[in-house]
Design a protein that fits this description.
With 344 residues, the protein is an alpha/beta fold. It has 15 helices and six strands. Strand 1, helix 3 and strand 2 form a beta-alpha-beta unit. The longest helix has 22 residues. The protein starts with a helix and ends in a 29-residue tail after the last helix.
C-alpha cells in the first residue's frame, strides 16, 4: 500500500503536476485503486467506459461510489462504432459480392449493419462475431480505446503527463490470467510525440483478492453486490470468460440475460459471413467442442453450434455436461454462492 501512496516518486522523469486518472469498472480491483487514490490525499479523476453490457447493479454501484467514499464523481465515456459499421456496409456491398456470397446473406447483413447505440453489440455487429479467449478484442475497443481517445489524449494535451491507475493483479481468478499478467511491470511509461506521456500505474499488482476486500472494509464500502451472488468478475454481464458455476448463478438470478443474449446472437449472426455467431465459444461445452472439430473437418455442417440456451442447460449439469446437479436445483438461498466467501 505504501508504494501506491508514493506514486509521484516512483514515476521518474515527471515534470510539473501530472493528472491522475483512475479507471473504474465497478469491480473490486478498480475500486481498490480508487480507494488508494483517495488515501493519497490529492486530486484525481475517475472514469468508466459504458459497454452497454453491464448489470444494472453495477451501473448503480458506480453511480454511488463518490457519495459513499467522498471521492470524485466517475466520468462516463462510450465507444462509438458508427463509422466502422458504415465501412463494413461498403465491404459487404463490394467485397462480399465479389467473393460470391449468396444474396440472402448479403441482404441480411445490410439489413442489420446499423448502429444500435449499445457499444458491445455494435462492436460484435462490426466484427461479425463475439469476442473469445483467443480473440479478446472487447477490452481494447470498448474500454481502452474510448478512455484513451476521450480522456487521456485531452489530458496529456493540457498537462503533458497523465498517470493511469489500473487495477490489474497478478493473482487473477480466471484461466490464464495470472500467466498473462506475470510479466507486467508495476509502472511503465508510453511517450506520445507532441502530446505528452502516459504513465501506467498498477498499485495492486501483487495483491490478492482478499487484500482488495480488506481495503473495502477499511473504508466501510460494500463491494459490488454481484460478488455475493456468485460472480467472479462484474465487468460485462455476462463476460465471455465466465466460468460454469458463475453462469449457473447468472441464469438463475437474472433470467432476462438469456433473452438479451438470444437477441445479440440473432443480430450478430446476420452480420457474419458464416451466418452464425454464438456468444460463447463452441468449446465451452463438451458436445460443442466435438461439433466444432467436426465442422473443421467439413462434417455435420448443417448442425448449429451451441447457442445461449445450450450453454444455460449445460451450466446446470455436473462435470461432463450430462447429468443435472441436484444441489443447483435447490433454493439458491440455502447455499453460499460467492466465490470469495461473501455470503448473502
Amino acid at each position: 500500500m505504501d508504494g501506491a501512496l508514493n506514486i509521484d516518486q516512483s514515476c521518474d522523469g515527471l515534470t510539473g503536476e501530472p493528472q491522475h486518472i483512475v479507471s473504474v469498472s465497478g469491480g473490486k480491483d478498480s475500486a481498490s485503486c480508487y480507494l488508494l487514490a483517495i488515501m493519497r490525499g490529492r486530486p484525481f479523476r475517475a472514469v468508466t467506459a459504458d459497454t452497454g453490457h453491464e448489470n444494472e447493479i453495477t451501473y448503480e454501484w458506480i453511480s454511488k461510489l463518490s457519495a459513499r467514499t467522498g471521492g470524485p464523481e466517475v466520468e462516463i465515456v462510450k465507444a462509438d462504432f458508427t463509422a466502422r459499421i458504415a465501412h463494413k456496409r461498403q465491404l459487404v456491398q463490394t467485397k462480399w459480392v465479389s467473393d460470391g456470397m449468396p444474396d440472402e446473406i448479403i441482404q441480411a447483413a445490410l439489413d442489420i449493419l446499423h448502429p444500435t447505440g449499445i457499444p458491445f453489440l455494435d462492436l460484435c455487429i462490426w466484427k461479425g462475431r463475439f469476442p473469445s479467449i483467443k480473440g479478446q478484442f472487447c477490452t481494447e475497443h470498448l474500454k481502452a480505446e474510448p478512455i484513451f481517445e476521450q480522456v487521456f489524449v485531452p489530458a496529456m494535451a493540457s498537462q503533458g503527463n497523465v498517470i493511469s491507475w489500473q487495477g490489474e493483479r497478478r493473482q487473477g481468478e480466471r484461466r490464464g490470467e495470472s500467466q498473462n499478467r506475470s510479466q507486467l511491470p508495476r509502472h511503465q511509461r508510453v511517450r506520445y510525440a507532441d502530446i505528452g506521456s502516459l504513465h501506467i500505474w498498477r498499485p495492486i499488482l501483487h495483491w490478492s483478492a482478499e487484500n482488495t476486500f480488506a481495503l473495502h472494509d477499511h473504508f466501510g464500502l460494500e463491494p459490488n453486490p454481484l460478488y455475493r451472488m456468485g460472480m467472479g468478475r462484474v465487468g460485462c454481464f455476462p463476460c465471455i470468460n465466465a466460468r460454469k458455476g458463475e453462469l449457473s448463478a447468472i441464469f438463475a438470478r437474472f433470467p432476462e440475460v438469456l433473452e438479451k443474449i438470444r437477441h445479440f446472437e440473432l443480430l450478430v449472426s446476420k452480420a457474419s459471413k458464416r451466418g452464425q455467431a454464438t456468444f460463447f465459444a463452441a468449446s465451452t461445452t463438451p458436445q460443442g467442442k466435438r461439433l466444432a472439430e467436426d465442422h473443421k473437418r467439413g462434417l455435420r455442417l448443417d448442425e448449429a453450434l451451441p447457442g445461449i440456451d445450450d450453454i444455460e442447460a449445460w451450466s446446470r449439469t455436473t462435470r461432463g455436461g450430462r447429468q443435472f446437479d441436484g444441489f443447483k436445483l435447490m433454493d439458491g438461498n440455502q447455499l453460499c454462492s460467492s466465490q470469495y466467501g461473501l455470503c448473502e
